[in-house]
Design goal:
It is a multi-pass membrane protein. Keywords: Membrane, Transmembrane, Transmembrane helix. Its main location: membrane. With 146 residues, the chain is mainly alpha-helical. The chain has one domain. Helix content is 71%, strand content 0%. It is built from 7 helices and no strands. Helix 1 runs antiparallel to helix 3, helix 3 packs antiparallel against helix 4 and helix 4 runs antiparallel to helix 6. The longest helix is centred in the middle third of the chain and has 24 residues.
């Protein structure tokens, strides 16, 4: 039987992986300084300042820890999706993480920000990816063959 998901799952994995890695690169200052080009934060401090507005119920030290956890999660999710490692679980984690972003963003700054940033799309696309039966051209597929 022909697998019609070969190319779509690959493109979806890459798109979502890049979607997770780009903001990590931004908040670590790898894409440039704040205020230049399309740079949202440009450094960790600006990222934590913004994250504090999204989580007003938490003290800044807690927000710093939660921001670090989210950044590490995004880094691993992005890499795992691109290489296709533990893809089903990475996609589920991506969907849950973005759903968490949706809730905090909506409660603190309104529904328009998560819509503008495509967080709903990323969450739904991640969930959809987790239901694809086979991840051709992935590390998962390569390891399953051995």
């Amino acid at each position: 039987m022909d697998d019609k998901f070969k190319i779509p799952q690959l493109l979806l994995r890459y798109a979502l992986g890049i979607t997770f890695l780009t903001p990590v690169s931004d908040r670590l200052g790898l894409l440039g300084a704040a205020g230049t080009g399309n740079i949202e934060w440009g450094n960790w401090q600006n990222f934590i300042d913004y994250t504090t507005t999204l989580m007003p119920v938490f003290d800044r030290p807690i927000v710093n820890i939660l921001g670090g956890i989210a950044t590490i999660a995004e880094l691993f999710i992005g890499i795992f999706l691109i290489i296709g490692f533990k893809t089903k679980w990475s996609a589920r984690a991506a969907s849950l993480l973005t759903l968490t972003f949706i809730v905090f963003m909506t409660l603190s700054v309104g529904i328009q920000k998560p819509v503008n940033y495509g967080v709903f799309t990323a969450s739904a696309a991640s969930l959809l990816l987790s239901f694809i039966p086979n991840y051709k051209w992935s590390l998962d597929n390569l390891l399953a063959e051995k």
